[in-house]
């Protein structure tokens, strides 16, 4: 996809490193997103998202017309990135790339996603400890 430039790919990988660090903060050993893509759509030697989305195995080759109001922003930012930032705070993990993505989406859409998104309070887990949150998932 033309939007996944080498620089954007690098930032996506940094964002995924933040997600993996949040998992470690909850004593979880999560799989990288790049490894998940390879598992679901086909393995190859790609080391970055840029390489993967431009490979024959990529499921994204025929996707065109994405824009800043695609579901990848309007659903993923409030539903995934906002709770990720809040979960990170519980386990003292810094998430600068994820936070700036939420801030940028908020500015682009004129929506405060930190307030409108799936906060831990809305999820009913704001008062839980990391162990308490994990216990809910078991």
Characterization of the model:
The chain has 138 residues and is mainly α. The protein has a single domain (6-137), classed as N-(1-d-carboxylethyl)-l-norvaline Dehydrogenase, domain 2 (Orthogonal Bundle), CATH 1.10.1040.10. The mean pLDDT is 90. It has helices at residues 6-25, 33-41, 49-53, 71-74, 76-90, 96-109, 113-116, 120-123, 130-137. Helices cover 60% and strands 0% of the residues. The protein is built from 9 helices and no strands.
Gist of the model:
The chain has 138 residues and is mainly alpha-helical. It is 60% helix and 0% strand.
Question: Layout of SSEs?
Answer:
Blueprint: H1 6-25, H2 33-41, H3 49-53, H4 71-74, H5 76-90, H6 96-109, H7 113-116, H8 120-123, H9 130-137
Keywords:
0% strand; mainly alpha; 138 residues; single chain
In CATH terms, the superfamily is N-(1-d-carboxylethyl)-l-norvaline Dehydrogenase, domain 2
What is the distance, rounded to the nearest whole angstrom, between the alpha carbons of the first and last residues?
A: 37 Å
Mean pLDDT: 90
Task: Give the CATH architecture.
Answer: Orthogonal Bundle
- Rounded to an integer, what's the Rg over CA atoms? 16 Å
Number of strands: 0
CATH class: Mainly Alpha
**Major sheet, described briefly?**
none
Structural class: mainly alpha
Give the amount of beta strand, in percent. under 5%
Whole-number total of structural domains: 1
What is the succession of H and E elements?
HHHHHHHHH
| Percent in helix | 55-70%
Q: Please count the helical segments.
A: 9
């Amino acid at each position: 996809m033309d939007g996944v430039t080498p620089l954007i790919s690098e930032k996506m990988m940094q964002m995924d490193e933040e997600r993996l660090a949040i998992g470690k903060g909850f004593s979880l050993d999560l799989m990288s997103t790049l490894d998940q893509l390879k598992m679901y759509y086909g393995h190859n030697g790609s080391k970055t998202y840029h390489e993967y989305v431009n490979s024959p195995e990529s499921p994204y080759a025929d996707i065109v017309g994405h824009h800043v109001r695609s579901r990848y922003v309007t659903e993923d930012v409030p539903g995934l990135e906002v709770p990720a930032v809040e979960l990170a705070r519980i386990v003292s993990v810094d998430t600068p790339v994820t936070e700036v993505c939420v801030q940028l989406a908020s500015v682009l859409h004129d929506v405060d996603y930190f307030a409108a998104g799936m906060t831990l309070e809305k999820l009913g887990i704001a008062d839980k400890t990391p162990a308490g949150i994990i216990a809910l998932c078991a």
